[in-house]
Write a structure and sequence with these properties.
2 strands, 133 residues, disordered N terminus, alpha+beta, two-stranded antiparallel ribbon, 15% strand
Amino acid sequence: MALNIRCLRNSITGKHALEVTACRMFAAAAGGKSKKGSKGGAAGDGPKASSLTNEVKSTTTVGANILKEAADPKVLQDSEYPDWLWHLVDKRPALSELRRKKIETLPYEDLKRFVKLDNRARIKENNSISAKN
């Protein structure tokens, strides 16, 4: 009996790459051939080649449209996007780094982050202590 394997692979890129793999195995149809119209992994179930041209791919954000009757949004120049958008990917300091600095000299955003992370760490510590009891 032959087995077909389908794998779904999700990867998150960044400083530390994380790869999650989930595989599903199922038996092939009797005789090694699948019936026409039957469910299962036929040979044509693989990834489809994109029918979009390279020009369309580079000028539009394909798949970002959430409305039924609207078109995909066009890619704009960097100067046409708001300034706050470019700061979303900035690395923010960790709790250990914030604890080493003087609290009085921290900017408001870092002070808010310090309070949030410190409260979260304190809650986790209290939960672990109460779980042991």
